[in-house]
Amino acid sequence: MNSEQFRKHGKVMVDYIADYLDNIKTRRVTPNVEPGYLRELISSKIPEEGENFESILADIEDKIMPGITHWQHPGFHAYFPAGNSYPSILADMLSDAIGCVGFSWAASPACAELESIVVDWMAKMVGLPPQFSFSGSEGKGGGALQGSASDCILVAMLAARSAAMNKMKEDDPLTEDGVCLSKMVAYCSKQAHSSVEKAALISCITIRQLSVDDKFSMRGDTVLQAIKRDREAGLVPMFVCSTLGTTTSCAFDNLKELGPVCAKEGVWLHVDAAYAGSAFLCPEFRHLLDGVEFATSFNMNPNKWMLVNFDCSIIWVKNSNFITDALNVDPLYLRHKNSGTSLDYRHWGIPLSRRFRSLKLWFVIRTYGLSGLQEYIRRHCSLAKKFETLVKSDNRFEVMGQVTMGLVCFRLKGPNRFSEQLLTSLNESGKLHMVPSSMNGRYIIRYAICYEHASEEDINESWNIITDITNTIVKPNEIAGEQPAPDGEVISVKSLRRLNLKRIDRKNDICVIDEGVPYCPISELQAGRYRAKSPLRSSRQRSLHLW
């Protein structure tokens, strides 16, 4: 393909992309295909001769699009947003055209320097202390773009591991690396992302997943007690990962408590704000950052909620020497005359090769400005509150957890199978896509505001689809506490908290309860009053129908 053909086909592709995004609502959100569908459509024979662009483009619509989950669809509410915008797409086009591999300053000076500038911009935009910036008062801090939050967390853990090992060897220079590793312990909450566990697995470090409070927040005293137990056992606590905006429910660990604990105990504190970090563009959310001054490192994903296409995650650190000392590999062929005085990002991550990611972040910030990005975040948060109001307006549903940002967790009251059946039917409809999670043993449905141009009309349409399908599962006033059976004894949920609940017939929602035996949590029962049927085998045992 020569430049003239590229101009011609490029215009066609730009039109195709614009048409795709403009008309995406006409498609199913999720594909209706089975595993292996594409092998039946694409020949196993490798093309011997080149094909024309028109036939390739035709196969996109005929073969590829039927198997695409449309993350930019107004009905896509799964996971978290996958950032997307035209400025970001254009920047990636330019990055691909330049085609530089920016592993060092010499490999492409503008690539390295623009990255350092935009990560400093971002540190100021989200309200991080100046120590996290290259331009900070001490000049030790800084940030780098990574492929994902998983990369950021792994890099932070490897840096913490290296620092801990150096300290252990200062105390006993003869200690072998394997012995040091066997004693190291990291901590996170049970609500932390799976990438924290994977980072510990790769780093060969023991990970403790700690309990959370009733707001699904990891607290300082919980971490302190875990650290003390491990120290008493001869182990070396060295890393705590705090989450701001968990994947399960967008809960926030108590950074104000965790910070002083980690500072006193000499433990590296990393803050994972992959999703919620973008909300800190808005000052009204920055109270959730209280305590970040104690953090050693911090990460967020502009490619989630800041209109920047994947991949674009940022890690900041107060002292960049911890990262570069841990990951510095310096063969002769990578050295240059400015080594040691310039910024070589190859020492900041796992891969050597690095894309020109900073271009799209630069394009987006300049195109929308801080005020435009704030407006976008606030609109999504407002729409989440709108959806929360709709959920609460129907007494068959309940909202689980707090709605702080752009995520609403909800469920049908009653047994978990109601919510499971609802979500299955919603996803099979092709009109909406959501994913489940679990909170205190209860099956929940996550409704994330993801679509760039989401509106109240979209929220209302989602709710209409949800209630229409719900009506096929349970009728209005058919959920627990609304219409008790006409016979039997009324039992309040308060008394049920002192009963032992045993499921014996899930199909008919019949449960056997034994009085006097503590059982908590009672995941299948909701606040309200229930009509109990006649005793089955004794006066202390009853069959309870959940209405």
Question: Can you walk me through this structure?
Answer:
This protein has 15 helices and 16 strands. The chain is of the alpha+beta class and about 550 residues long. Strands 1-7-6-5-4-2-3 form a seven-stranded mixed sheet, with helices on both faces. The longest helix has about 35 residues, at about 360-390. Mean pLDDT is about 85; it is low at about 480-545.
Topology:
Elements: H1 3-22, H2 53-64, H3 86-98, H4 109-125, E1 142-146, H5 149-171, H6 177-183, E2 184-189, H7 194-203, E3 206-210, H8 220-232, E4 236-243, H9 255-265, E5 268-272, E6 297-300, H10 302-305, E7 313-317, H11 321-327, H12 358-392, E8 397-400, E9 407-412, H13 416-429, E10 435-439, E11 442-448, H14 456-470, E12 489-492, H15 493-496, E13 499-505, E14 510-515, E15 529-538, E16 541-545
Parallel strand pairs: 2-3, 2-4, 4-5, 5-6
Antiparallel strand pairs: 1-7, 6-7, 8-9, 9-11, 10-11, 12-15, 13-14, 14-16, 15-16
Short description:
With 547 residues, the protein is an alpha+beta fold.
What is the average of the pLDDT values? 87
Structural class: alpha+beta
Radius of gyration: 27 Å
Question: Helical residue percent?
Answer: 25-40%
Net shape:
globular
Total number of helices:
15
User: Roughly how many Å apart are the termini?
Assistant: 67 Å
Question: Which spans have pLDDT < 50 for at least 5 consecutive residues?
Answer: 480-547
Number of strands: 16
For the biggest sheet, the summary is: 7 strands, mixed
Q: Report the portion of residues in β strands.
A: 15-25%
For the biggest β-sheet, the strand order reads 1-7-6-5-4-2-3
